[in-house]
Amino acid sequence: MTVIDARDLILGRMASTVAKRLLQGETIDIINAEQAIISGRRAQIINEAKEFLSVKGPRWGPIHHRSPHMIIKRTIRGMLPYRKHHGREAYDRLRVHNGTPPELSAADAQTIQQAHLDRLRGRHITIGEVAESIGWKQHKAQP
User: Fold this and answer.
1) Rounded (5°) CA angle 33-36-42
2) 3-class SS at 76?
3) Which of 103, 65, 97, 82 has the alpha carbon at shortest distance from 22?
4) What is the tens place of the pLDDT at every residue in 55-70?
């Protein structure tokens, strides 16, 4: 099992790398999903996300997820042949988490790796900020 910390990683580059590794048979957990970034102007990215939410099907769909971990999971699914058997199996080996779950932080701390991707120095926005702007309500831990 490979654990990838999505903090400050560009969404598309991370997703393509993860999709390739899933197709090769790896099991991947992505942590800190809300801290992955999208490059571009903040206002333009938020407007595109809100416009995408207005697309509706005749009765039941499509389903538009607002949670950061589901946005990332859906992005990776778009890079997999998920309608074929090996694509579905690869997709089932993917786990994405908002924040760091306790079972991955302490016991598997040595396996948390940064994917070998470039850092972004220009304009960008985090997935968490996009998710909050389209209606994601972050659940706070109860004391």
Assistant:
1) 125
2) helix
3) 82
4) 776 677 777 888 999 9
In the chain, the domains with their CATH numbers are: 2-133 (3.90.1180.10)
Distance between CA atoms of 129 and 99, rounded to whole angstroms?
A: 14
- What's the chain's Rg over C-alpha atoms? 16
Neighbours of 97 (CB within 10 A): 19
If DSSP codes are grouped into helix, strand and coil, which group holds residue 14?
A: helix
Can you give the pTM of this predicted structure? 0.84
- Within 8 A by CB and 6+ apart from 115, the residues are 4, 9, 14, 17, 18
The predicted pLDDT at position 72 comes to: 96
